[in-house]
Amino acid sequence: MHSILTRLGLANDPRLCAIGSPNSITSDNPATGEAIAAVRLQSRADYEAAIARAVIAQASWRQLPAPKRGEIVRLMGNALRDAKEPLGELVSLEMGKIKAEGLGEVQESVDIADFAVGLARQLYGLTMHSERPGHRMYEQWQPLGVIGCITAFNFPNAVWAWNAMLAAVCGDAVIWKPSLMTPLTAIATTEVCARVLRTQTLWRPEGIDPADIFPLVIGSDAEVGEPMVADRRIPLISATGSCRMGRRVGEVVAQRLGRCLLELGGNNAIIVMDDADMDMVARAVLFGAVGTAGQRCTSTRRLLVHEKVVDALCERLAKSYKSVPIGDPLAAGTLMGPLVNPAAVTGMRRACDEALREGCTLLAGGAAGIDRFKGKPGNFVEPTLFRVPKGARPRICCEETFAPILYVYSVANLDEAMEIQNSVDQGLSSAIFTLNMRSAERFLSTEGSDCGIANVNIGTSGAEIGGAFGGEKDTGGGRESGSDSWKQYMRRQTCTINWSNELPLAQGIVFE
């Protein structure tokens, strides 16, 4: 067993099994192609048992005062903080992002737990003046129930925490279906929290395992995913993944009139004006497009550069791309690890071929950058840079390829840049680099970016937990993490109290 799993206390976890065992999946190290461990797949019966336990546990959990729930979340946040090093290394080992990003992902989970602790005392409602004498009207927020959480491979720890920590202080339970590409991180993450839940002293429900507010079910779409999204016991499904997946989830949940929180694809652009600080641009683009090997939903995929500076920027980026340290994500000095699996490499090659067919000019990487690693262990590629022909709108540039490919456009002005940016189906993250206040404000105005995230002089990646995270159009419209995203995990109730001796009707209606 890998030493990281041992450090996380998973040596005897019953969900792990011998590699090659029947009805199991193997988690492979994308940097070597070697198996890390095998995990037993759970069945629909396992799902039914887990959701039944969660329903019972949530009925008790919701009775605990929110500040007390916040205290327990604080303990879980501290436990995640204590486990940050091995848990972050496991993220890197299983998913392939570099160690700094793996540790950063766990830090997001710690941060959202800290945020949720304060939130536990701020689940505010409003008080409204009634038009009727002797009446008081106000709203309050009640727990929603058991939340279904479906996550993707690229953030196998933090996205669950974004949902679970907020939902927990709101009085909900969260049943989690993780990506089958990163099951070990899911097991380790929930086990850290389960230990806290089973040892804390603030909530000891009789006959209930406190860890049942956070059940984990690792199974196929047929056995777990489809029953979960169709389950009327789950009022809200939070799903992160592809647009195709989101459409399926949205369709099934809509049929039962449930709620969806969808975090789907992104085709994110940075606009670079001729007055931009080019040193900042180069750094932001490199992290945005190359970080996580282009496998973030907020990765920079399009660069819309003013025609006065596009040639110089392309030359600078091409040089930087060719010097990016690629290798073992856990090794010091590595800036780009592997893609998650061989299928991702195949998808990148297909996109590169299509870009060339549509007239784009290769500046760095491409098929040759993929072939460089042919026959070697792991799913490594070189980051790839294409220049789009002036005035062209290649179809491939409108698609989200989950790989480190960046398409550079030349634009004449801000109007053209914003039109190109907003022309794609997705609307997650966007950015502009400019020192001109008017350009920045136009970008942030109603006629500017149509994305859920719009930045000035920072890149498209690396959102903080304090703001609501999510996007528009085919990105799904959901919002997670900070701001008032907590309201999606609760139900709003409007209350009117009549403390008078009369029974007046609203709108002056007389019914006698």
Task: Give a verbal description of the structure.
With 512 residues, this protein is α/β, with parallel strands linked by helices. It has helices at 3-7, 44-61, 66-82, 84-95, 99-119, 158-169, 183-199, 221-230, 243-255, 278-290, 310-321, 342-357, 366-371, 414-421, 437-443; strands spanning 16-17, 24-28, 35-40, 127-128, 135-143, 146-150, 173-177, 236-240, 259-263, 268-272, 300-306, 361-364, 384-387, 405-411, 426-427, 429-433, 453-456, 468-469, 472-473, 480-481, 490-498. Helix 6 (158-169) links the parallel strand 6 (146-150) and strand 7 (173-177). The mean pLDDT is 97. A seven-stranded mixed β-sheet has the order 12-13-14-11-10-16-17, with helices on both faces. Strands 7-6-8-9 form a four-stranded parallel β-sheet, sandwiched between helices. The protein has 15 helices and 21 strands. Helix 3 (66-82) runs antiparallel to helix 5, helix 4 (84-95) packs across helix 5 and helix 10 (278-290) crosses helix 11. The radius of gyration is 25 Å and the shape is globular. The longest helix is centred in the N-terminal third of the chain and has 21 residues, at 99-119.
Give the key terms.
21 strands; globular; alpha/beta; 7-stranded mixed β-sheet; 512 residues; 19% strand; 4-stranded parallel β-sheet; 37% helix
Radius of gyration using CA atoms only: 25 Å
Average the pLDDT over all residues and give the rounded result.
97
* β-strand number: 21
Distance from N terminus to C terminus (CA atoms, Å) equals: 79 Å
Biggest sheet descriptor: 7 strands, mixed
Strand order of the largest sheet: 12-13-14-11-10-16-17
Low-confidence stretches: none
Tell me the fraction of residues in β-strands, as a range: 15-25%
Write down the overall geometry.
globular
Structural class by secondary-structure content:
alpha/beta
Number of helices: 15
Helix content: 25-40%
